[in-house]
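mind reviewing this stuff:

——
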Amino acid sequence: MTTPPPAPFALARYRAGDSVRLGLVAADRIRPLGESELGAASLNAFLAAPDWSRLQTLAEQTDAAWQPLAEVTLIAPVEPRQVLQAGANYRTHVVQLIMAGLTKGGESELSPEELRAKAEKIMDARAASGRPFIFLGLAQCVVGDEVPLELPSYSDTHDWELELAVVIGREAFRVTPDDALDHVAGYTIVNDITTRDRVFPPDVGDIGADWYRSKNAPGFLPTGPYLVPAPFVDPSALSVRLELNGEVMQDATTAELVFDVPTLISAASQTLPLLPGDLLLTGSPAGNGQHWKRFLRDGDVMTGTIEGLGTQVVRCVAEVGA
């Protein structure tokens, strides 16, 4: 069952027969948003100059356009043209990955204490550099949590990475950190699924990480269920919690980010314009499957909650025909 958003209202997209509609969610009800209600031709056009007061007025109405939220199937609440992802942005997460042996270089002859010291030195250097690590994902991998996560049969190391995702509003190009939040329309939840043994495949040597094959299988970016307006969210200290079959795996706050949201937006915008509706993932905290030595399996259920944004439930299934 879909849990209502904690915010006074939020945006969502949902199925209506064979079509997809944009909707306004307030508590446990939803209503369609057409061009006249939205005041814009499309979702991304609205996000370019969001008029939240217009939707606040609509959310307070009690007319017959509303229907119970439980009666609709929500899909991904965004239609990004670009997906940018911040890597290695939680200190403890990176330390755990290095110590677990699935970073570049594989198994190490260093002792656990030496590995930890090495990992912490790497993260200290990254923080001191002032330069986030950002790479690209594919927008076609963005799906709602109504789509089962089909685990490709070519690996058994599919991992979870729950993340706060920024939804870009007004186009951002070479903006400063001080101005960055002026270009945010809202926030949503993304689980950045990663196939660990494809990040540094042995057949490419020292060429580098293979983010395409490790992160871009169909459905590898479960997103939503809501787009929560920026005025309702302070991204600096949100709790981030993922449960696997009811057991807590990730439990952190965005206060632990190495580079905060304004810094990430500014850094990403230096190379190319960030467009209305684009997603910028901020990184995932400690507690991934690689740390627990437990990867995703057929029948697993991931429940991801980020403070103020609601809860996402993703069900895993084996690849059909595998």
